Each structure stands twice: as structure tokens, then as C-alpha cells.
């Protein structure tokens, strides 16, 4: 089955879901996955794109409506300000520049969310990007590092490149300044082309530091992608000042607890413990997901 992060079915069309799962199953077969892991099932952590395939209402009501209404309104305002400016009224020029900048930001906003939406007429219009091989029969795979996960997943994706996408990655030694500069340049190039950004992770799937469990991943999104999250005008200095003063401690704490509970749920499942024991962890994750925290953080 194909589930969202909150346990809901991704597909509303059972025939499409079956066709999708069959393609994934064939890719796993052709890559030799089943024999290699001596299993007849696998739990994968993935991203299924495009957004528009699942979030039509979100796209229409939250993103497209903002872009369309703002574009129309600003065009009208700018047109009237240009007429007014020709009359030589003081202060209109500065106001016109301000609204033209707003119009440009709205254009960047609509372009940003448009990069993640495309028409879906059939299975070939979907793209699946796996990130982790979470578990197989009798075994979880959190004891393997991320390089192992990415390379193993790459071999699966190569079996069906039309559907499955292997995520590019880099291994960076944080004690090597040249590697850090290379990573920054890579991120800059990705985001300038409209890419979402990158996710920074410790090499080990489960990493511990001086204060205990380390955050499993940190998203480093690009400037334009963040317009989707924070709004078209988030790049204005007055808005950036507010964003930089956000308190992230609670969000980080929730993320660590969700991560730990998720690992425990998988471990109990592969050990064939009673489902009520698995559900203890699952419901704990769902409870933490429902905490009143700004989802944009």
C-alpha cells in the first residue's frame, strides 16, 4: 500500500494504486532486491510527486488563489499609479516602485510552486523518490548509514528510471573547508535552477552527540522555494527580521520524539510484537503531529 505520513491512502483510485505498486514491485524484482534481503515485503520512506496529484485543494485554495488574485490586483494598482505619476504628484514614484517590487515577488511565488506541479493523466506522470529502506522481513535498516541507503536505492531506481528517481547526494567532511565550499556551491546551483534545496543529515542513520540523540535531518531550502512556505513577500527585510527570531526549540524536540517513536514502532513490527504494542508508538507519533506548532518552521 502507499500511505501518506499521517497514515492516509495516497491514491483514491485503487486501479492506479495497484498499477503503481506493481511497477515498484517489478523494479525491486529486476534489481534483485527480494533475493538480496531474503524478504517478500519492504517499507520505504519516499516522496511521491507531483504535489498537484494529491494536494489539488491546497494548490487551488492556498497557492493558486493567492497568486491569481494578487497578480490581478497589483496589475490594476500599478496601472493607476503610473497614470497618477504622470500628473506629477509627489511621492507616487516611490509608491509605484514598491508595488512593482511586490508584483515581481508574486511572479516569483507563482513560478516557485509551479515547479512542483504538472498535469497527471496516468502512471507515467508520477515520480517516486525513495530516501530510506526502513525495514524488511525480520530486520530494520537504521543500523546502516545514509550512503548505504542512497546507493542501495540507486540500484532499485535504475531498474525503472521513468518512475523512480535516485536523489543526488554528497558526502561532506565538516573538517575540510574545500568540501564545505563545494557543498555550498552545489546547493546554490540547485536552488538557482528552481530546485527545492537539500537535506543535511549525519552519516549515521541514528546519530548521538554530547546532548543525546542528534536531529536526523535538517532541511536547507532555497530562497524561492521558501516563498511557498512563508509567502511572496518574506524576503522583505522587515519580514526576515521576524522570521529569524522564531523559537525552534519545541519543534526540534517534537521532531526527535517522533523520530524515536517511529524507530521503535518499526522495531516492534519486525519483531512481530502484538499490534497493540506497535500502535502505542504510532499513536504517539500522530499525537505529536497534532501538537499546535507552526508547520512552516
Automatic annotation (TrEMBL):
<dbReference type="GO" id="GO:0016301">
    <property type="term" value="F:kinase activity"/>
</dbReference>
<keyword id="KW-0418">Kinase</keyword>
<dbReference type="InterPro" id="IPR032380">
    <property type="entry name" value="PNKP_ligase_dom"/>
</dbReference>
<keyword id="KW-0808">Transferase</keyword>
<dbReference type="Pfam" id="PF16542">
    <property type="entry name" value="PNKP_ligase"/>
</dbReference>
<protein>
    <submittedName>
        <fullName>Polynucleotide kinase-phosphatase</fullName>
    </submittedName>
</protein>
<feature type="domain" description="Polynucleotide kinase-phosphatase ligase">
    <location>
        <begin position="1"/>
        <end position="291"/>
    </location>
</feature>
Amino acid at each position: 500500500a502507499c500511505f501518506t505520513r499521517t497514515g492516509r491512502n495516497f491514491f483514491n483510485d485503487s486501479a492506479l494504486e495497484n498499477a503503481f505498486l506493481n511497477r515498484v514491485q517489478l523494479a525491486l524484482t529486476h534489481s534483485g532486491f527480494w533475493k538480496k534481503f531474503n524478504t517478500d515485503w519492504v517499507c520505504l520512506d519516499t516522496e511521491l510527486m507531483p504535489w498537484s496529484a494529491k494536494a489539488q485543494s491546497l494548490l487551488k485554495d492556498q497557492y493558486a488563489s493567492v497568486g491569481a488574485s494578487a497578480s490581478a490586483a497589483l496589475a490594476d494598482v500599478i496601472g493607476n499609479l503610473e497614470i497618477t505619476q504622470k500628473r506629477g504628484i509627489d511621492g507616487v514614484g516611490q509608491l509605484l516602485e514598491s508595488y512593482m517590487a511586490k508584483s515581481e515577488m508574486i511572479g516569483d511565488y507563482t513560478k516557485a510552486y509551479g515547479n512542483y506541479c504538472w498535469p497527471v493523466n496516468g502512471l507515467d506522470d508520477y515520480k517516486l523518490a525513495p530516501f530510506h529502506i526502513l525495514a524488511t522481513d525480520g530486520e530494520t535498516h537504521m543500523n546502516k548509514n545514509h550512503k548505504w541507503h542512497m546507493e542501495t536505492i540507486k540500484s532499485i531506481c535504475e531498474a525503472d528510471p521513468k518512475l523512480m528517481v535516485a536523489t543526488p547526494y554528497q558526502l561532506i567532511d565538516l573538517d575540510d573547508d574545500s568540501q564545505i565550499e563545494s557543498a555550498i556551491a552545489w546547493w546554490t546551483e540547485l536552488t538557482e535552477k528552481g530546485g527545492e534545496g537539500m537535506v543535511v543529515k549525519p552519516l549515521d542513520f541514528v546519530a548521538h552527540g554530547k546532548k543525546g540523540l542528534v536531529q536526523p535531518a535538517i532541511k536547507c531550502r532555497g530562497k524561492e522555494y521558501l516563498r511557498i512556505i512563508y509567502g511572496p513577500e518574506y524576503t522583505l527585510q522587515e519580514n526576515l527580521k521576524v522570521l529569524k527570531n522564531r523559537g525552534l526549540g519545541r519543534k526540534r524536540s517534537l521532531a526527535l520524539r517522533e523520530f524515536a517513536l517511529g524507530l521503535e514502532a518499526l522495531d516492534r513490527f519486525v519483531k512481530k510484537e502484538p499490534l497493540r504494542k506497535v500502535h502505542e508508538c504510532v499513536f504517539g507519533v500522530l499525537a505529536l503531529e497534532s501538537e499546535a506548532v507552526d508547520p512552516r518552521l
